Structure formats: C-alpha cells, structure tokens
Amino acid sequence: MRVLMKGNEAIGEGAVRAGCRYFFGYPITPQSELTHYLAKRLPEVGGLFLQAESEVASINMVYGAAAAGARVMTSSSGPGISLMQEGLSYLAGSELPSVIVNLMRGGPGLGNIAPSQSDYFQAVKGGGHGDYHMIVLAPNSAQEMLDTMGKAFDLADQYRNPVMVMADGIMGQMMEAVDLAGEIKVEIPPKPWATTGMAYHTGKNVINSCLVIPEEMEELNLRLEKKYEVISQKEQACDQYMLEDADIVLVAFGLVSRICMSAVEKARAMGIKAGLIRPITLWPFPTELIEKTADKTRAYLAVEMNMGQMIEDVRLAVRGRAPVFHYGRLGGMVPELRDVLAEVKNLHEGGAGR
Predict the structure, then answer these.
(1) pTM tops 0.90, yes or no
(2) N or C: which end of the chain has fewer CB within 10 A?
(3) What are phi and psi of 275, to 5 degrees?
C-alpha cells in the first residue's frame, strides 16, 4: 500500500514499525508534525508519548527508558539538539541504545525555520563533552526516512550506542509516496544489561557514566574506542551514481544529493564525466569508497547547506591525492541545480573552484 506522507510522518511510522513504543520530546519547527503523528500513533500500539517540559528533560527521559531496555526516541531541530548535548554524552558513556532525530534548520543561534545542514559537526564530531561517537544516518527521501528508522534502532541495540537520524527541514515537510506494504515484524534482542529489576541473589545491573577514578574512566574510554573502531570498519554506507568513469565527483547527503544527482545527469549531457557519492552514514563516514576513487578523480566538489563541514571529512579521505572544493548555501538557502552545474562546469574547464 502506497500512502502520501510528509517526511516527518514517515519517520514516525518508521519508528513504530521498528518497535519504538516510547517517545519523549518537545515541539519545535520544522519537526513538529513528527511529534503530532506519534502523539496519535503510539497509543494505538500500546506505546507512550509524553511532551516533556524541555529538550533537557526529554533527553534525560530517553536515558531512563533506554536504561530499562525500551526502544525509545526523541526528536528536535538544531536549537533543541544543542540543549540535549549533555544527555547525548551520558547516553554514549553509559552505552544506552536510543534514537535521536534532528530535522535541521538555519543557524547559528535560534536561526530560522528554513532548511539547513549546519549541524553536521555537532552530530559527527560529538557535540557533548568527552571522547564519543553517535552513529549518524542521513536519508534522502520520505521512503528512506521510514526505512532508516528500523536500521537506526537495530544499530542502536547492536552496538549499545545512540544513533542520530539527520535530515533537513524540507525533508521533514515535503510529501512523497511511501510504501507501507508488508506485516510489521520486529525482533528486539534481549537486553540482559537493562535495569529491569532483579532478585537480590542474582546481583544487580548498574548503568553509570560517572567514574571518579581516572584509571577506570580511561578503561571505559578505551573500551568505547574499540567499539567505535568496529563500527567504523563494518557500518560505512553510501550510494554511488555514475561513478565508474567520473573524473569530477560530487559528494552530498540528504536533500542536496538529489539536486546533485540531477546536476550529474545534466553534466553528462554536456560531455562532462561527473559522478556522485552520497554518504548514507555520516559517521562512520564512507572513507573507504572515497579513498578508492581518489587516484582517478581530477577534483571533488562537496555540496552542502552550510559553510563547509562535510568537506573536511572528504579531504581526510582523499588524503591530498586530488583537490577538494566546496559549494554551499547558508542560513536556510538551498543550492539550485543551475548553480551546482555551473560549479561542475567551472571545474571541468580548469577553474579553481572555491
């Protein structure tokens, strides 16, 4: 069955289908339709929706439900996600699986309600204190937003780690046909570590990220580092488009990747061998594929709705073997196809790019 849904609604339905039964959050544009949808949908499946008094409260409620073994999520936009950073660090340090959705808006500060990708650093570099990573997923359609939620909850449980699903405000608001075919079958793995109450003679589970003895804190950090290494090796994901013979490679995620796909097609019609790499995981970043293309690529063009953030990870992957340029729009402006195509044409003709 195909249904016309907003991206925000697709995320909500995807979460329900993934077995999420608890949501704690606070409304903020442009993701408020997600909270509206789950406020109605979760009680239909025996779940709980609770509007917290703030984003700080909501992320700590997520901590509590995750500690009890529940599949739980929250959602917000840039300013709200900023308020959650301490809680996100706690979730990572305590190894609690949970899903956080960020529908990005223009910034910095309170900014505006227009779409942006300016929260990239905040998400992939760890916006809270300490050495930690969230797994960060970047869908680029309403269907993928729905499907990604299942992947997000599975990864969170598999690695006992918070997972962020990140898109821009337009993707939350746009409407597309979504396939809802098939039965909802969810297998949630056992969680013997959860604080669900245990008989005294069997001991007790303790979940904590506050280790006052430096040696113990270091031991936790080293264990987390090993986990992040495994995630980085196994979970890199990306799409590639017309990449086989490309000598100018665009790199873009989310909504911008769809614009860049059209730019690649038009560039090909002009005789320019352009291709596209679309990161699906922003962390771990798909370094391996970019490394493989670096020796045959004349130039890379990172296209983003920010001042230049993902470009740093592209440059690290390329390791100086080809120039990497950037084209971006700021503050809620969306790159236009004609402008991206002009940048590609300029690079093809030997221009310096930006």
Answers:
(1) yes
(2) N
(3) -145, 175
